[in-house]
Specification:
By secondary structure, the chain is an alpha/beta fold. It folds into three domains: about 100 residues, Orthogonal Bundle (Arc Repressor Mutant, subunit A); about 90 residues, Periplasmic binding protein-like II (D-Maltodextrin-Binding Protein, domain 2); about 100 residues, D-Maltodextrin-Binding Protein, domain 2 (3-Layer(aba) Sandwich). It has eleven helices and eleven strands. A hairpin with a 2-residue loop joins strand 1 and strand 2. It is elongated. The two termini are about 30 Å apart.
């Protein structure tokens, strides 16, 4: 059960005032609370039904049952939009907290058997760089635990953390969020990828000028990418023929002989081991390193399983303790934070 994180004003009514009107005090059903929170979040019965994998009449029936139990209408319809009534606004934080407590209790019960769950949000680039080794080690330590990984851009991973859809985030841009802490985890070098058989693969030493005349495939890999691309264009006149929003597709294109491209070494290690591409170091490049950051909700109370996962990630991949930025070029970095 995943719970949305709610903002909004402080409740104007106490729980005693609300339950003083209940026709069935203490008899509120869990599924009705879930439906209430989802409708409040989506502001739509139709979207709430889709999110809960229910029909709209089923959601309507649950809301009506809850309103009967509370003794007050919780929603009002205005055209196609749905709004909380004053009673609904008052009830909202208590409904959320009730489900949170149930979830925390269920998590605590599972933790006693080492069967907790870790919800991970990550960019594809960060996931391919660290999760294979991290998950392998974590499974050895906690074989009964479950890990769920969801992908997104760095800003989308931040949203997952904010909304309670992820316990841990791995991002490639240090975005600033007041409710989220971001710390450097690991940095790695940018290397050139070539097909297994390619003219550049036989050269003993490569410089950027050796790339002239070859098709370039650029793969978005995070902080420093735009500055590196700009340097290639302005200093060498090199511009990518194909740009993809992720490393896996870029690797496939390169493995088919469609061109060469740069990527973080850790993110392509598995493809290199599989023989899909080769890695070459290019001399005389600007000093660019891609960094992966660990993101957590500020002041969040982590379960034992999630804390063990975070501690393991820090032990395995922690970069410089000072947390100094490791993405540097000869030009001033832009303030992009995609």
């Amino acid at each position: 059960m995943l719970l949305p994180v709610w903002g909004g004003r402080k409740a104007d009514h106490s729980i005693e005032e609300i339950y003083g009107t209940c026709r069935n005090p203490g008899g509120v059903e869990l599924q009705n609370l879930e439906a209430f929170l989802q409708v409040a979040r989506e502001r739509s019965f139709t979207r709430a039904a889709a999110a809960l994998f229910l029909t709209q009449p089923s959601v309507t029936a649950r809301i009506q049952a809850l309103e009967q139990e509370i003794g007050r209408p919780l929603f009002e319809r205005r055209g196609r939009t749905v709004r909380l009534t004053e009673a609904g606004e008052a009830f909202l934080p208590y409904a959320q907290r009730a489900l949170e407590l149930i979830q925390e209790g269920a998590t605590a019960a599972r933790e006693t058997e080492g069967k907790g769950t870790v919800l991970v949000g990550a960019t594809v680039s960060a996931a391919t760089a660290i999760l294979p080794d991290l998950l392998e080690a974590f499974r050895r330590d906690r074989p009964g635990a479950r890990v769920v990984v969801r992908y997104g851009h760095s800003n989308e991973v931040m949203e997952m953390l904010r909304d309670g859809l992820a316990d841990v985030g791995f991002v490639v841009r240090p975005l600033h969020e007041p409710l989220i802490t971001v710390e450097p985890l690991v940095a790695d070098d940018i290397v050139l990828l070539t097909p297994p058989r390619h003219p550049l693969g036989s050269r003993r030493r490569l410089t950027p000028k050796d790339l002239v005349g070859h098709t370039l495939i650029s793969m978005q890999w995070g902080e420093g990418f735009e500055e590196f691309e700009r340097w290639m264009q302005e200093e060498l006149g090199l511009r990518s023929a194909i740009e993809v929003d992720g490393i896996p597709l870029g690797v496939i294109l390169i493995s088919r002989g469609m061109g060469v491209g740069f990527a973080p070494q850790r993110s392509v290690a598995a493809y290199v081991r599989a023989g899909m591409v080769r890695v070459r170091t290019v001399q005389e490049l600007p000093h660019v390193r891609r960094e992966v950051f660990l993101a957590l909700r500020r002041a969040a109370r982590l379960s034992g399983t999630v804390q063990a996962f975070v501690d393991l990630a820090r032990r395995q991949f922690r970069s410089s303790p000072e947390g100094e930025p490791t993405v540097r070029t000869r030009r001033t970095p832009s303030a992009t934070s995609r």
